[in-house]
Design brief:
mainly alpha
C-alpha cells in the first residue's frame, strides 16, 4: 500500500516539492555557511519525494546549535517551503481522493519550518535511531 500511495504522491505533488527542496538546497550550498542547511534540504527532498512509510522524530542531542540553525533556516528557506506545502495541501484537499495527500502535506509543514534536530526514520521503527 505504501508503494501505491508513494506513486500517486509522486504524480500529484511529490516531484514539485522535491524540486523545491533541491532548489533551496542548491541555493543554500552556494556559501560555506549554508552547506549544513543545504544538506538538510536535500535530506528533506528525499522525504518529500517518498513520504509514505517514513516519519520524523526529534533528536534530543542536538542542543543550541540546532536552535540557532532553525532560526536561520526559517528566515532563509523555511517560510517558502512551508508555503509550498500549504498551497499544495489545500489544492489536494479539493477532491476526496486527494484528502490523504493534502493531510500528508500539512504534516510536512512543521518539518519544513524547523528541520534541524529532526531525523527521518521508517514508520515501522520510529525509535531505531536512539
Amino acid at each position: 500500500m505504501k508503494t501505491i500511495l508513494n506513486i500517486i504522491w509522486l504524480i500529484l505533488s511529490g516531484i514539485w516539492l522535491f524540486l523545491g527542496y533541491v532548489l533551496a538546497g542548491a541555493l543554500l550550498c552556494i556559501t560555506i555557511i549554508g552547506i549544513p542547511f543545504g544538506i538538510a534540504a536535500f535530506r528533506i527532498a528525499v522525504y518529500a519525494l517518498w513520504p509514505f512509510g517514513y516519519t520524523t522524530v526529534e533528536r534530543h542531542d542536538t542542543g543550541a546549535p540546532s536552535c540557532v540553525g532553525n532560526v536561520l533556516w526559517l528566515v532563509l528557506a523555511g517560510w517558502w517551503l512551508a508555503l509550498g506545502h500549504i498551497v499544495t495541501g489545500i489544492a489536494l484537499c479539493i477532491t476526496i481522493i486527494g484528502i490523504p495527500f493534502g493531510i500528508a502535506n500539512f504534516k510536512m509543514v512543521p518539518l519544513s519550518l524547523l528541520p534541524l534536530g529532526r531525523e527521518i526514520v521508517p514508520t515501522d521503527a520510529p525509535f531505531a535511531s536512539r
